[in-house]
Design goal:
Blueprint lengths: L3 H22 L8 H10 L1 H38 L12 H31 L4
Helix pairs in contact: 3-4
């Protein structure tokens, strides 16, 4: 089996041979009817449809990327707004119990919100064309 070095060496030899041939003989002219065939082909409906489909596909990719970025921003803002700046004062009778209940409530709300956002993002990502 040939090594990569031998393959590259052969490629270099072929390249040098092509260069010498082009310098000696000049470039080969394209057939006279080739330009018109290319113009006719590019004007046909099947070709136009393929080009348009590719363009729309790129636009859809950009659209879904924008949706993902937007969802990430919304998630970040949601988390920022859900976490209170200050924890409210606990009840004087049982401060530890009230703080624990408040923390559990806050954790439950955050977990539910994150779970919902995660589910929405998974639905967007798993959406099939």
């Amino acid at each position: 089996m040939r090594t990569e070095y031998e393959k590259i060496k052969d490629l270099d030899a072929y390249t040098e041979q092509l260069i010498r041939q082009v310098e000696a003989e000049g470039l080969i002219k394209a057939p006279a009817h080739m330009k018109q065939e290319i113009l006719d082909r590019s004007g046909r409906m099947d070709y136009q449809l393929a080009v348009t489909t590719k363009k729309v596909s790129r636009q859809m990719q950009l659209f879904f990327y924008s949706l993902k970025v937007g969802a990430a921003v919304v998630t970040a803002l949601f988390l920022l707004l859900m976490v209170p700046k200050e924890l409210p004062q606990a009840e004087p009778m049982a401060p530890r119990e009230a703080a624990r209940r408040q923390e559990e409530t806050l954790n439950r709300r955050l977990n539910n919100g994150i779970r919902e956002i995660n589910q929405m993002l998974n639905e967007i990502i798993d959406w099939e064309w």
